[in-house]
Amino acid sequence: MTKIFDPAPTKTRLDLNANILKAEYAIRGPLLDKVQAYEDHLREKPGSLPFDHVVNALIGNPQLLDQKPLTFTRQVLSIVQNPTILQHRDILIAKKIYNRDVIKRAELLISQVGKSMGTYTLTKGILGIRNDIANFITQRDGETCDPDDLYLTDGATMAIMQLFSLFAKDSKTGVLLPIPQYPLYTALLTMYNLELLPYYLNEEDGWSTDTVEIENVIKSSISNGTTPQAIVIINPGNPTGAILSLETLADILTIAAKYGIIVIADEVYQQNIFKKEIEFHSMKKVLRHLQKSHPQGEYNNVQLVSLHSASKGTSGECGQRGAFMEVVGFNDEVKEEILRLFSISLCAGTAGQVLVDLMVKTPQPGDESYELDQKERHLINNNMKERAVLLYDIFNNLEGFECQEPQGGMYLFPKLTLPQRAIEESRRVGYEPDEYYCHKLLDATGICVVPGTGFRQRPGTYHIRTTFLPPGTEWITRWKDYHLHFLEEYSN
Amino acid sequence: MTKIFDPAPTKTRLDLNANILKAEYAIRGPLLDKVQAYEDHLREKPGSLPFDHVVNALIGNPQLLDQKPLTFTRQVLSIVQNPTILQHRDILIAKKIYNRDVIKRAELLISQVGKSMGTYTLTKGILGIRNDIANFITQRDGETCDPDDLYLTDGATMAIMQLFSLFAKDSKTGVLLPIPQYPLYTALLTMYNLELLPYYLNEEDGWSTDTVEIENVIKSSISNGTTPQAIVIINPGNPTGAILSLETLADILTIAAKYGIIVIADEVYQQNIFKKEIEFHSMKKVLRHLQKSHPQGEYNNVQLVSLHSASKGTSGECGQRGAFMEVVGFNDEVKEEILRLFSISLCAGTAGQVLVDLMVKTPQPGDESYELDQKERHLINNNMKERAVLLYDIFNNLEGFECQEPQGGMYLFPKLTLPQRAIEESRRVGYEPDEYYCHKLLDATGICVVPGTGFRQRPGTYHIRTTFLPPGTEWITRWKDYHLHFLEEYSN
């Protein structure tokens, strides 16, 4: 039988957007695929691998490990999703299924949500929730926040994707990124054909930010015909955990003011601080201080987007995709374009919006749920701090590892000094040396971490990023053992 | 006092991505802003406007009006968000707070979700939920669905945005869209600098799809040097509500096979069918039939993405952002690129994922919750059908209105014949005639609908899109009265 017609061939990579093909995102890639394959393998054939479980230290996904969701948060959310349960209010209280303050907060949220969790909300998000966020920010900073400057978004990722697409005027538009950085940023620059203007963090000084370098990068890009459009500041840092000082923040804003550069302050780890002596200062607070202390108006044109999320902190609700951004300093026509763009995707998911509300407004002393809530938060924070410190100590006593002291965030980013033969072998098989190390570590121990290559680093240096979320210390001991074995294997 | 430095000016529209500036999305724009302004106004000064409430017939947002969420759905979701409530299982059952089948389903979902609703899921979404979707599709079509072909997404909107960005190879890449269409599509073509290749739906034939025209559009674009990359089919249609016949679907697939064009089947209204004589057929089912009946392989290269959502149907959970896409026929390297792109935004929100599961797998005969669930669904469907029919009758008896019979969806899209003086006046004030009509209608009655201009239409014709969701008939009577007044006002 002959064909009725000749079918055209299927599309190939050549038929797709070349910029997207070039974009790389190291957190979900070959290593994570291997993790999933090994997990399946262990499930089907226990004992068939040199380890009996995988340790996922790849991504900041706290509740995947042993962090529990906060009780008050989930109890309130569950009522908000099913308001008809309140017809049983008396039993719920009498049988201690819910505390009274849980019910009260749920009722407040239900009225803030309005008709139903199932309705599209305003583009910027539920107004009552934005009011609560504004209160949180005002209290945090001692500086007023206007709820109209706030947008609730499906995770900080979505906010950043939309903003970058809007700011991507043309291929001579540049964005300053810290090196190392969270690879979403480099992926987006590639996708939107923006020019990467890297500013290197100072590893030997605890990954501090060098604002002299930032200004040099800007001047240099301008003289090359590039418009530096925006600068990303990750504070606390990812992967570094470094917290920026007041002085550094002020210097960044001065540069932004002089050169007219949009500041994007990724502050999603602001509630993961574990060095008590170091305080987190929001970029917004410092901006307001500078504006007040400079009545001539030098800082009045600074444009700032600040991001926070319910994915990290003590909430750890990554999978629920709840975040917000505060947008200040833009002129009216640009604010309108931001709103128009975000309106095309209608609104952020309501569950995420509610979780943001529960993150910014928590049980207070005297509330029934306060004691348990505090206990849970202390446990989470103490666990994280203990593990960070432990891992840091072990790394710094391990040959070939050098680690900066953790200040915040969820990760450590130690530098690896690898034997020359390992470096040669990795290149021979087509990997970066730190990628190679990560694959070998995973294959031998089931421990998965991310190579520094994915985050970018000074050429000739190698790092790995690990979360310190996995429970216990047994995995760290196994890593240490494997590392010493690795050094031995590749030494001359 | 002199300034320490001269601040740079703020960014203007000229500093932004020009393609995004050009994109238009009629559903959230000046009319919706006016709706919000009027609502605020009525709240602050009751009686100050010619109407006492706003009727939002602008957007398919069922639970904003009087559609309730499904009881079983929200009860299960609420437990899944707060699994610790199950320690009170006995009381929950004894006091009839939850039926046993609600608890059983929640327990199943909790195990499918895995560790916690707060964890990032696999990029494609929770596997157990994808298995349930695959069963749903297999049963719906009588054709197997592979869960590996499924992606859970934050609403169909997000899926479409990502796909279009990936398929946007260059400015000579085109996408066929039905005219009229849901304005997300035209907005994205503008944003991604894709060429619009319109194919006009046949209004006089119930907004049917003319596949001869589709092929002509393709041939014409190819001879103009454009590559037609994809074709969007909205079935049931938005704004038209038209349901495509088996024959039309098969013809579309034949064209796709001949020319190698990706088919994007937006089927989010597949559970809003109210003309019993007309059956919805999924594009996937028809493709599989054609593949089986053509063993020579003419249809084996067809690439198809099918979209469905928990926003519409009887769920109506728009605000929760739960949807899925089924991706078949692509070669491995393109499938890999789709996965890589979606992995950058990590995963869809877990609440939305759970709601999709509850949409595709519902209480069955014999289950405790079955009776109530059926009752609720019938009520929703009957209400929608009654209002659709009522509105259709009224429109067709109204001078200057001409309406195609509704088959599915949530909207009517009647054609307006406007008096010449109204057309002239509208142009004088800088509006399209149907935009002008919508503003006048809103100002006089508080009823808000969307001008056909936003959806595109044959030049020289004017339409409006209205949902038939608002309860009661009083608003329709007021519309009719205003319309007759409008005709009188603008006649000679």
What can you tell me about this protein's structure?
2 copies of one chain form a homodimer. Chain A is of the alpha/beta class and 492 residues long. Chain A contains 17 helices and 14 strands. The N and C termini of chain A lie far apart (67 Å). The interface between A and B is large, with 113 and 113 residues.
Give the total of beta strands of chain A.
14
Rg of chain A over CA atoms, rounded to whole Å, is: 24 Å
Q: What percent strand of chain A?
A: 5-15%
The most extensive interface between chains reads: A-B, 113 and 113 residues
Mean pLDDT of chain A: 95
Strand order of the largest sheet of chain A: 2-8-7-6-5-3-4
**Assembly form of the protein:** homodimer
Largest β sheet strand count, sense and barrel closure of chain A: 7 strands, mixed
What sort of overall outline of chain A do the alpha carbons produce when their principal axes are compared?
A: globular
